[in-house]
Design brief:
Layout (H helix, E strand, L loop, with lengths): L2 H25 L2 H15 L1 H27 L4 H14 L8 H19 L1 H4 L5 H10 L9 H11 L10 E2 L2 E2 L15 H19 L7 H19 L9 H23 L2 H33 L1
């Protein structure tokens, strides 16, 4: 947790912890609090999300033009580089556009991970000495990655009311970690829904901003693909055909695998946050994309 970045993450986790605790004080259920907390964070970050969506749509359009330049100047890399830079200048975009938003997203993601992983520290504001006391009292393994979650679970078993975070949500114990409880069928519900939402979210992300082609444009695209395949077979062109599409397909395979791997070793409370976040983010993307495209169509008319 040391260093400047660790300080920022801990600071943000503390702010988010205050918000989560405030919501919990009214609903008295950790699962409901997580859901409302996720929605609240999405609303707070809405201006940032709108900006990110605009950047993504604009970047998709530029990439289509970059592809045209690559076709036009495929035998002149110097000219291609110059024309590409000129294109970004005309569109008032940077090739690194979106990097800043991705970094911010990652910082927020880690901050909320810290919060859900350490609810006693960031939600209850319990000091380290007190936490260490509970670790010794309940003989929590020093090897555990989720000591505070383990404390909450053991305190509940011991009817210790000094720790009163209610982790039961619709019959699911949000303090459970799937990899430790394979025999409990309830541990599969939230990670399973999380994986499904990840696949849906990935599909929407990869299709967002894609231009809908007319029948004639589709036929032209297919013609170009056939010609390129023929050139590749003839050895007259390098096999870089549909690289982006191939990468997207690989991502579609890797995303659910990564989602399963992470959800299996994380407390169900964290998986619930990821699930709700995926759902709300997907809904936001659908709405924002439709609104922005409608606005663009109106301006074009």
């Amino acid at each position: 947790n040391g260093g400047f970045m660790g300080t920022i993450i801990s600071f943000l986790a503390g702010i988010f912890g205050y918000l989560l605790n405030f919501i919990y004080s009214y609903v008295n259920n950790y699962g409901i609090a997580i859901i409302l907390f996720t929605i609240a964070v999405q609303i707070i970050l809405l201006p940032f999300t709108i900006r990110q969506q605009k950047t993504m749509i604009k970047n998709n359009k530029i990439q289509a033009k970059v592809k045209e330049l690559q076709e036009k100047y495929k035998n002149d890399q110097v000219r291609l580089g110059q024309e590409t830079m000129d294109l970004y200048k005309r569109e008032k975009m940077s090739p690194c556009s979106g990097c800043f938003e991705s970094i911010i997203q990652l910082i927020l993601f880690i901050s909320i991970f810290y919060l859900v992983r350490q609810p006693l520290t960031y939600m209850e504001n319990m000091d380290k000495a007190k936490i260490d006391e509970y670790i010794n009292k309940y003989e929590i393994s020093q090897q555990s990655n989720y000591k505070e979650i383990d404390i909450i679970r053991e305190a509940r078993k011991a009817n210790d009311n000094t720790i009163s975070i209610e982790m039961d949500f619709l019959g699911i114990d949000l303090s459970n970690i799937p990899s430790r409880n394979w025999g409990n069928p309830t541990v599969y519900i939230i990670p399973g829904l999380y994986v499904i939402s990840s696949i849906i979210s990935m599909k929407i992300t990869t299709s967002a901003g894609k231009k809908k082609l007319s029948k004639e444009e589709k036929e032209e695209e297919e013609r170009k693909k056939r010609e390129k395949k023929a050139l590749i077979k003839a050895g007259e062109e390098e096999d870089d055909f549909d690289t982006a599409e191939a990468m997207n397909k690989q991502m579609m395979i890797m995303m659910p695998i990564m989602a399963v791997s992470v959800a299996a070793i994380a407390p169900l409370g964290l998986a619930l946050y990821w699930l709700v976040n995926n759902i709300t983010t997907t809904i936001q993307r659908i709405i924002l994309t439709k609104v922005m495209k409608s606005k663009e169509d109106g301006e074009n008319e």
